Amino acid sequence: ELKVEQNPLFLSMQEGKNYTIYCNYSTTSDRLYWYRQDPGKSLESLFVLLSNGAVKQEGRLMASLDTKARLSTLHITAAVHDLSATYFCAVRETSGSRLTFGEGTQLTVNP
Amino acid sequence: DVKVTQSSRYLVKRTGEKVFLECVQDMDHENMFWYRQDPGLGLRLIYFSYDVKMKEKGDIPEGYSVSREKKERFSLILESASTNQTSMYLCASSPGTGLIRKQFFGPGTRLTVL
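Above: the input entities. Below: the structure tokens describing the complete assembly.
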């Protein structure tokens, strides 16, 4: 059974600081997804990582994937208040289309 | 842009009622999914469907059933609602083939069972 763990689950940081969210998964996978959820809203896709060593960047967010370590990171650079949200990673099993989600990391960026 | 819509944003029902949650997508996606989201538990898959009239159990199917009579529509049914089914319900769809197969989510239905 595929398990996905994120840490930290709660993150409070100051504007301008850097931080990393970690996503570990338990079995072989060939796809990893990062989503963002604003309070009361649905999930919005951020990144899709397709292979070992993949790196994607959008603004102050950068995601990477190490399939050998079964680890993905979401790095936040010089955080701003608008990044406050809950971030989920999700892993697709090697076959099929279903995803297993992590518990989510609730990020609060304080002025 | 892919659009996934859900029939209600908020719903209040009484224990024992039959509840229908509807989801419609407009991008001809083969796959559709129903999740529930609860604080501290992330998203948990209830059921999914990879084709019309096909369905597969997810991780927490007990107390739920689904129907997919048309490709664009996937319904979640609570046969006899209970208070522990109070939750946020999210529908998603994705292509059945292709490299990425990203899931696109609807706005969610917040269901309260009294």
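Note for the figure: Chain B has a mean pLDDT of 94.
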